[in-house]
Amino acid sequence: MTTQPSTNAGSDPVALLVVHGIGSQEPGETLRGLLGGLRLAFGDRLAIRQAAGDHAILSGIGRPVHVFEVYWADLLGGEIVKRSFDFDRIFEVVWFPLLNHRSGRLSTEICSRWRVLWWTAMLAPLSSLLCAGFWGAKFLASIPTGFLKALQESKARPSARTKTVGFLETFRTKHKDPDRGRTILDDLMDQVVGDVFNYVQGVARAFPGESERNRELIRHVDEIHVRFLRTAERAEKQGCREIQVLAHSLGTVIAFLAMCPDVRPARSTIGPAQLSRFYTIGSPLEKIRFFWTRLVEHSRNGPAIAVVDRLIAADSTHGGKSAMKWENFFSRLDLVSGPLQKLPGWPTPTNHPARGLGGLIRAHVAYNSNPVFLSLLAEGLTGKPSQIRLSLFRRLVHSLMAALESLILPAVFLALALMGLAFMGGIAWLTGWVVSQPLEWLDLGGWAQGVRIYFVAAILFVMIVVEVWLGRGRAEELYTRFWAPDKTE
């Protein structure tokens, strides 16, 4: 007989587990940002006591609320992720939706065949444009990086003898330096885009190559889920008989998978707490389902939070219907987020368009100040309806900034892509110029010009066509190894 979750008493404390998203987050940063939004929602009646760096207790709003931050950025940060991002993963993953559809994993009920074909036709060439933009941005980032290195070297002015003795040593070690040519952009890609691939590949044990670092990344990804479960245990020890979960960006995928136990314990010594609400903001869960369908297939045992054979929190059911509410907030200008569809075993998400977040640059990180989100969060925590409105002036400023950002970002990306293409084309032109010099000496200027054009066309063809096609071949191999349905499924 399964023990049913306890019902919430009006004065019983409620726990809110907060899971942050991608990037180089600092401990407590996400908690502080959320508390700032809650101050906007509740005003002066909200009292906050900081019990620990990752734990705050709210009072003055009807019932005690324990807010816990589930911090995981350190597990996918630092030296372990350095040089982990590889643009080949982009060229490969754009083919995964088509492979998911062909294998039957991505059914027509989830996504129609024409939509899969349309997005594949769009994303395959776009991956080349993204690569060009990456090289353009890297070229720009190399300028201040090179300047700083030159400045550091100029501080030590060696003598002529020291220069002579050290020249060969410098030449020998420079080309062995693995960080040679790295810029701040490379660190950013490792910490942001790399988070997605490291997490997804870690969960699925799907790293393309075997290495000690990849095995360690798998252990770190497992530890992320352990931290979520330990935080739920902390909430239980604080006497919280109701648990709510708020997650942002990649954190929504982490929280979702952490609440999909492989086995749902049938018995528990203590009745499990009520898992009442799941708030997702800026969630890429539908995109994860589109590219890596396998990850979200085993959700029938959720939503529940279980440790080994003990059920900490579970969704209660009434007449076979889920009692947990799933509130998903997304913005049309947030390229990461989107409306979510129902997943097996889970309640149907209620999708809320969040307007006024900003443009393409800020929309993904501005949910904590959105009135719709704050109103529903405040209602969920207090059990009372709450209405929050921004002033007309503030709404107008948000609209103006959103319009500017939405114009600036595409223009910047296009400029970087053109710069990247020009950079690669310039290298090809220079190579062609060197090769064609004998033709110039023979007074065959027309042939020499043709050689240079050929080199430029060849490098652009390799970037735009060959890389995409090679990515498809690698994608099919990786998909067969890690993502295709098992014969027993």
Automatic annotation (TrEMBL):
<feature type="transmembrane region" description="Helical">
    <location>
        <begin position="451"/>
        <end position="471"/>
    </location>
</feature>
<keyword id="KW-0472">Membrane</keyword>
<keyword id="KW-1133">Transmembrane helix</keyword>
<feature type="transmembrane region" description="Helical">
    <location>
        <begin position="407"/>
        <end position="431"/>
    </location>
</feature>
<keyword id="KW-0812">Transmembrane</keyword>
<protein>
    <recommendedName>
        <fullName>Alpha/beta hydrolase</fullName>
    </recommendedName>
</protein>
